[in-house]
Structures are given as C-alpha cells and as structure tokens.
Design goal:
This protein has 680 residues and is α+β, with helices and mostly antiparallel strands. The protein is 16% helix and 38% strand. The protein has a domain at 3-273: Beta-galactosidase, Chain A, domain 5. β34 (591-598) and β35 form a beta hairpin. The longest helix has 17 residues, at 385-401. The protein is globular and about 70 Å long. The protein starts with a strand and ends with a strand.
C-alpha cells in the first residue's frame, strides 16, 4: 500500500532543501543570479555533487536561464511492491520529493521534479502546455566534488562494447577514450557512457550516474569538462531536433545512486523505482530460466549461422534436438536457436517467418514441448531495422503460433540514417517490448540501448546485452582481466545483463579462414588460433551469482559440460530469480563477492570473482538464518589454478555451516568461487 503526503512552499522562495528518508542524503535546490536552476547533493556530510545547473531547450523556448520560481511543492511517498522477477522478492519505494514550477522569460512553464531516496537522487523535467515541442538539447550537469576515482567506458551514441577504463576523473581524455573504445564509431569528443561508477577515495563513498524510464527520448551520454570538473548530459543522435514530443511531456529521470561502499550500487533499486508499475494484467507466461543454445559453437566455427557450405549449418533439426536433449537432462528451460531463418547470405534480407529447409520448426517445437523445454527464437537484423519493422508484427505472431514465447533480437552494425541510441531507435527497442507483450513474447535485446528499468513496467523485457560480453573471448584477445569485476557496478546497475556465462573449455582452438595477403598478392588459407577465456572455471561458475539476469545462458558446448558433471551441478542448482541480494565485499575492478537468496527456497548462493591478482577473501555468513544449519558446497580454484596457467583446476568441498561461521576462500589469478548454502 502506498502512503503519500504533500505540502506547498510559497513562490517567494528562490531555494529549497530536501533530505532523504534516512537523513543521510541532502539536496539543495536554488536559482542562480542568472535565473539558472541548480542543485547540489551531499551524502554523509560529503558534497559529492557541488552546485550543478539544470535546463532544457526547445526550438522556441529556453529553460536554461532567466527562470523564476512559481512555486515549490514537497511530498513524501512510501510503498512496497513485488517484482515479477528480480534480485529482491519485495522492493521498497520510499522517497521525499521536491517539484519546482518555473517560468522562463516568455512566460512558458517548466517543472523540475526531484525524488530523494536513501540510495540517491532522480530528477526529470516536465514541459507544460498543449500541442508539441521540439527538444533540441538538455543541460543536466553533474559537477564532481573532487578528482575522484572513476570506472567507465568511452562515450558513444552508437556502441557500448568497449573496455572499461579505471582513471581519476582528470584523466578522462580523448586518448583514454580511445583506449576504452579501440575504434571510433559514434564517439563523442570527450566523455563517457552511463552508468559510470565513481569513488571518493577520502571517504569511500560511491556514486553511479545513469538514467531511468527512457521513453520517447534519445539515450544520454555524458560530456566531460576537466576545467570545471563537470559532466553534462548530451542527447544521442545527429539531428538538430533530438525529440519531437506531445505536451505535457516528462523526460527520463537522471539518476545519481549513492552509497558508502561499492556494494551499495549493486543493491540499489532506484532505477526500477523511478519506472511506472507493471501494466500487464497476466504475467504468468513470463518465466525466468537458464537456457542453452547453438551460439557458442558458431563463435568457435564448429558450425555457422548461414548455409555457406564452408562450415556445417548450426540450426538443423538434428543439431537442435541434441541441445534440447541436453537441456531436458539438466532441467534447463530453453534452447536458443540462431541461424534458423532465411536471409543469412550476403546482401539478403532476413525473412523472420521462413525457416531454412533443414530447420523443421513444427517438429522442433513439438519435440521440445514433449521434454519440458522451450525454443527461444532469434531475430538478427544486421542493422536493417526498417526491414525488421516491416515484418515485426507478423514475425511475432508467427512465433506465437508455434508456441515460442521468447525471442533474442540483434542489431549488429551501423544503422542507416540513425545511431543505436537516438530517439528513433529508442522507440524501436521499446516497440519490440510492447508488441512482444501483446504476443506473450519475452524479449532479450542484443546491441541495445542501455537498460533503464522499463522492465518494471514491461517485465517481458527479460535481459539485454549492452557491454562486451563473453563472446569477445571467442574471436579476440578477450576482455581485460579487470572487466568482469567492474560490470556489477556499471552495466549491471542499469539492469539485467545477458553476459552468457558458463564456459568450461577455457583454452581452445578456433580455426578461422583468415585471408592474409602476402607480398606477391596471394592469399593464405586456414589459420589455427589458440584462445584463452580470461578466467578460471570457478570464476565462470561464480558469474551465475555475481552477474544478474533472470535468464542465464549455459553457454558452452554440451560435450564440454558432460566431461565435468561435478562442476555442471552448480549450474543445474543455481537459481535465476532471487528473494534477497547482498554485496558482501568488493572493490570495483578488483574483486566482488555477492550473496543471493533463492526466491523459492531458503537456500543461499555466493559468488566471488577477482581480476589478475590472486587474493583471499573472508566470507562472513552472518546473513544466514541464525537458527538453522546449512550444507555448504564450495566450488573453488585449485592450488595450481590461474586463468593463463591451469584454468580448469578446481576443487569441490562440503561442510556444514551456520550464521556464525566465516569462510576463508582463496581466488587464483582471474579466478573465483561459487558457494551453495543449502538449508537443512
């Protein structure tokens, strides 16, 4: 039940203060002498965000200066709600708010609403009036209170699959952006993408800057100015008008998560709380699950998406049945099938309702259903979004008619006339979710706009990519060794993350037909490369707890799992839907230890991962129920383990524990551990 209260401050005030429900976070709102709206944010007495300006412009209105206050309204709100799936069984939505109604020099009205939670601030603009408005820019500043430590990827309105960089704020430069990106598509001049995680080294306070509830608006990128030590919002896209909107219109929320430790960023629900409640009356068809698929074997060139004759075709009836059998043997809910539909040849347009002749969709959906498994469909667009738009309605109905209720979409490449994160593409991504819901389809988006919590409103949006995932370990030097211990505090703060964990064959051969011209112009043929996945096997198991998603891929080949059934058992057992989440210990980019409680039992699971430094961690089990024992099964790195030495060296140990126990666990270089705590 929601509880709200309201009172209004008279219009003779030019400033106002606000505190969070627990009193630790304080907001100051004011107008500058130039009539600019501005705010500052303090946490535990530290001014993390000094006075920063706010504003928005349209083609015919300037709300950045010359403003006067009409009134300031304060209110409080408190409710608890239950997500369809998530990291918590129940979420408290408790905040104090301030809404300032302003007028510009032309007498036009703008509202700035600020909600202050115990875990941070959300703010947004509402353009008043009737008709339409053409938004051209937004000036939301996040001035920093010091030269803080920062963890970020390069600012781009077209790509997010970059390496994380760990620098002081003053070291955000075009050069370090290139270090992150490695390429230039869609990069802004000097800035970062969100979420960005920031730490004050003097106090240990942390913040993460992002956005929530992105509808009818471009994605946000942050430009950095080192002279003023300030981030400023930029709206994605090349168009001068960034968004044409119907009035009245409220922008997405700009968010600052705060906490006194890194784990507070993981545990925050503020991005979800700033979204509207679920609009779906029936959610019984939305099912969290683990799934397998033909995806990894194609990255290894065991097979391939299209039927080019050079490699075997992956999506054949016979091959997919093998994966269905493996899923059924282990209780996994789905089988992802890529490369099933006509159009994978060069220059062809995809047909999303026409299987290849060697893929019998009727037989396979029957075969899967008989074994308690679902087929997960795949819609790659290769960035031909117009072609997908034309077919989307029919394609979703086609899946629904065959009993398929999950689809993974993909947007590889540059989109003609658009950027991946401009208004047109945001509308497209959101349309897949809304139309998916109408057809009872769960959606997993790859190459997406960053997540902003709209899964609260449409929980059929199960997960998304939006970072350098596991696939970068298949045909590349791999992700940096500190990439994985950074993701929980950056990309995963935005929402569920389809990283595709669980690789067991960590040092493998990949034969690639690489055309390499010699001096005489001839071309060499096959090249055999040895690749490393930059982690140990125990680290891979830990990802099922450390990385959050209600759908988790069991990504390796079935034969590789069958060789290690004892390690596979953890993946079989670990849930994907949780009642509680605790980040027990962490240092961003170095290591993280996370505990989660199963929503459907009293069992807990703990995962820990580290970067290239081996380390030992103390796992305090005081979060367990104090009046019972638990059987602890620990999957840890062996004595010889290391990501680049013996990555598959692991040990499984059992003992009984209680809430008074503290376990000391060693993690090897690039290593980790997974712990099952089964209530007795």
């Amino acid at each position: 039940m929601a509880v709200a209260s309201l009172f209004v401050v008279g219009c003779n005030s030019t400033k106002s203060d606000l505190v969070s429900p627990d009193g630790r976070t304080a907001l100051h709102f004011t107008l500058t002498d130039a009539g600019e709206a501005a705010y500052s944010l303090t946490f535990d007495g530290e001014e993390l965000v000094p006075l920063s300006r706010l504003g928005i412009t349209t083609t015919d209105s300037n709300f950045c200066e010359g403003l006067t206050i009409v009134d300031i309204e304060h209110s409080s709100f408190d409710e608890s709600w239950e997500p369809v799936w998530g990291q918590f069984a129940e979420i408290r939505n408790h905040y104090n708010s301030l809404t300032a109604t302003l007028k510009n020099a032309d007498g036009k009205a703008l509202k700035i609403e600020m909600r202050l939670f115990d875990d941070g601030l959300g703010l947004r603009y509402t353009l008043e009036g009737e008709g339409t408005a053409s938004i051209t820019s937004e000036r939301t500043e996040f001035r920093m209170g010091g030269d803080y430590e920062s963890h970020w990827i390069a600012g781009s309105d077209d790509d997010a699959e970059f390496d994380y960089v760990h620098t002081l704020l003053s070291e955000i430069t075009p050069a370090t952006m290139q270090q992150s990106a490695g390429r230039v598509r869609g990069l802004i001049e000097c800035g970062v993408s969100t979420p960005i995680a920031i730490k004050s080294p003097t106090t240990g306070n942390h913040i993460a800057i992002h956005e929530a509830a992105l509808w009818h608006y471009p994605g946000m990128v942050l430009a950095w100015d080192n002279d003023t030590r300030c981030f400023t919002s930029l709206l994605a896209g090349d168009e001068s008008v960034k968004s044409e909107v119907e009035l009245p219109f409220s922008t997405p929320w700009r968010t600052i998560i705060v906490g006194d430790r890194a784990g507070a960023l993981v545990e925050s629900n503020m991005v979800l709380n700033l979204n509207e409640p679920c609009v779906l009356e029936d959610t019984s068809w939305i099912k969290p699950m683990k799934y397998v698929g033909v995806w990894w074997e194609m990255h290894l060139k065991v097979s391939i998406w299209d039927r080019d004759g050079q490699y075997p075709h992956c999506a054949t009836t016979e091959n997919v049945k093998r994966y269905i059998d493996f899923a059924a043997e282990n209780g996994f809910g789905g089988v992802l099938v890529e490369g099933w539909n006509v159009g994978w040849g060069r220059g062809e347009k995809f047909d999303y309702s026409q299987p290849y002749p060697d893929f019998d969709i009727v037989e396979l959906t029957r075969y899967a259903e008989e074994r308690g498994v679902e087929i997960i469909g795949h819609h790659e667009t290769y960035a031909n979004v117009a072609n997908y738009e034309e077919q989307m309605s029919q394609a979703y109905k086609y899946y629904a008619s065959h009993g398929i209720n999950s689809v993974k979409t993909g947007y590889v490449g540059g989109i003609a006339g658009h950027k991946h994160y401009d208004r047109w593409m945001v509308d497209h991504y959101n349309r897949t979710v809304v139309e998916g819901a109408a057809n009872k389809l769960c959606i997993d988006i790859h190459e997406p706009i960053h997540s902003t919590g709209i899964c609260r409103t449409y929980p059929n949006l199960m997960s998304a990519e939006g970072m350098r995932g596991q696939e970068w370990q298949a045909w590349n030097a791999g992700n940096s060794i500190d990439h994985n211990p950074t993701l929980p505090f950056t990309r995963n703060v935005a929402g569920a993350m389809d990283f595709t964990p669980g690789i067991f064959d960590l040092r493998y051969h990949n034969t690639i037909n690489k055309a390499a011209a010699t001096e005489d112009g001839s071309v060499n043929g096959e090249y055999d490369y040895v690749y490393f996945v930059n982690s140990t096997l125990a680290h891979q198991l830990a990802q099922y707890v450390v990385f959050y998603s209600p759908i988790q891929m069991v990504a390796d080949l079935p034969d590789n799992y069958r060789q290690r059934p004892d390690a596979l058992q953890f993946i079989v057992d670990v849930p994907v839907d949780w009642a509680d989440t605790r980040c027990l210990d962490a240092e961003i980019g170095d290591y993280v230890v996370t505990a989660r409680k199963d929503k459907h039992s009293d069992d807990w699971y703990v995962g820990g991962i580290t970067d290239g430094d081996a380390r030992s961690v103390e796992v305090d089990l005081s979060f367990l129920d104090g009046d019972r024992e638990y059987e602890a099964t620990l999957y840890r790195d062996g004595d010889n383990a290391g990501w680049n030495t013996y990555p598959a060296d692991y040990v499984i140990e059992k003992q009984d524990v209680t809430s008074s126990d503290v376990l000391t666990v060693r993690m090897a270089s690039g290593g980790g551990f997974a712990l099952q705590l089964k209530a007795l």
